[in-house]
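User: I'm curious whether this sequence folds into something compact or stays loose and floppy. Could you predict its structure so I can see for myself?
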Amino acid sequence: MSRKAERVRRTSETDIRLAIDLDGEGKATVGTGVGFFDHMLISFARHGLFDLDVAVKGDLEVDAHHTVEDTGLVLGAAVREALGDKVGIRRFGSALVPMDEALVQAAIDLSGRPYLSFKGFEFNVDAVGAFDTSLTEEFFRAFSNEAACNLHLRCLEGGNAHHVIEAAFKATARALREAVAVDLRVKGVPSTKGTLT
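Assistant: Here's the prediction. I'll summarize afterward.
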């Protein structure tokens, strides 16, 4: 069973092409024009074991907001498409990821109901490179909305903004990797309703 998707989004603010393979090896080719964001998406692919190809042209002359948010939308939509009817998946996943002084927890439910809880994140700087730290929440909200998943992120220990944000991306990737995994004991979809849409 192939669990791949390709999505394109073109607006007056961004032009995005994205492809994902949920059963990949963690290979990534990413170009968004925002170096730190590229680093986060590459980490996301590596720790989720997703093959990810992302090309974005955004209105960076304004700022990185549209580029980051719209990429979150497209990534979420691609994950949802790649999952199809979600037959046989584990559905839930969680991860606790340390990065030096930072510690972030992610829990995800591929329920078909979008919701983001983003708590405990206090950044010690306004930006990491050209990446405004406030865009971290914007990205994950966009992702959870289009993936139609519950995503809870908790920063349990903070410190360096780079470490905190990277731990959040890695924790989410590892939680998602667990949630999308196929469990041969699961018959149909893991829901008493019989659907996860």
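Summary: DSSP finds four helices and ten strands in the chain. The helical segments are 35-48, 65-83, 135-147, 161-180.
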